[in-house]
Amino acid sequence: MKMEDIARLANVSKAAVSLAFSGKPGIGPETRERILQIAHESGYKPKNRTTTSNSKSTNSLLFLVFTNSGIVLEEYYQQPFFKELIHFVGERCRQKNYELIFSTIDMESFEQGIENLAKENRSDGVIVLGTNLTEEQISVIGERISNLVVLDTCFEILPVSFIQINNVMGAYHAGKYLINNGHTSIGYIASNVRIHNFDERERGFLKALNEHHLSISDECRLSVAPTILSSQDALKKQLSTYMTSGLPLPTAWFCECDYIAISAMKTMFELGIKVPQECSIIGFDNITEAMVVTPELTTVQVEKEKIAAHAVDLLTDNIEQGENLKIKIMVDTTFIERNSCVPLPVN
């Protein structure tokens, strides 16, 4: 039995079989399980099959994701922000001579998944994608898994290591940028799925406005799905309702992430609203797609490479020094000015 035979039996490519055996992202969990089951039933044993072995790998870190919850989809590895973050985590692991393996747990199997993972003890340290996790959920994970670091969120009272984005700072700078460019009529397009990061971004943006005695009216607060890059009917309906009210459109909009900003630009184009001539738009995250859209998106750069390096270095230092330090790191953002924003003309 060869890898080609497993691929034929599973009706997938040889590359998909390789991803299933290596534990790398790129295929869905159902496909992965089907491939591994066929291999098991056929008596095929791949070399270095770390994803299915219960013995701990030497010099390895595990990247743990809880899917089908919040903004983390089942195919999270295809979402631009997470795809870039995973790339940098993998690069840093290679630099440190650590193997990176992956584990995905459906949120519906949260308790059982953690219990199984703790029993398997497959790696020397665990990096958890915390974007969609609550304080209570991370507390449970921390109680059962040692040498752990959580990315992309933070809860100060938990005795767990976190690497988080300075969301407040990034959104604050976005607000200051709009105000300094003459914008006082400003709208806010939020995610209809709430996570820690979005709440912090809202806090930072409103802080900038409050310092200049500005506010956002209820009519100028819109809400849409945060994981769609195309135009959205829901947003089109909200904007159309606003426009028929007779109220002038805000001259600028802040969006809680680049997904929302890009979707808003495409929706506004379909409605005949010109960006940036009629309204400016700012996003947050600086995903690759921000440089592909027209006009290129003004946004807030999340330093994904630095976040990844801090996470890997913290775990590997603990492993190599025999320690289990709990550290919380906040990584500052950088404002990126492109073409989706323009200064408001002075009358």
UniProtKB/TrEMBL annotation:
Xref: InterPro entries: HTH_LacI, LacI/GalR-like_sensor, Lambda_DNA-bd_dom_sf, Peripla_BP_I
Alphabetically ordered keywords of this record: DNA-binding, Transcription, Transcription regulation
Domain HTH lacI-type: 1-55
Any one GO molecular-function label of the UniProt entry: DNA-binding transcription factor activity
Keyword Transcription regulation attached: yes
CDD domains: HTH_LacI
Protein name as annotated: LacI family transcriptional regulator
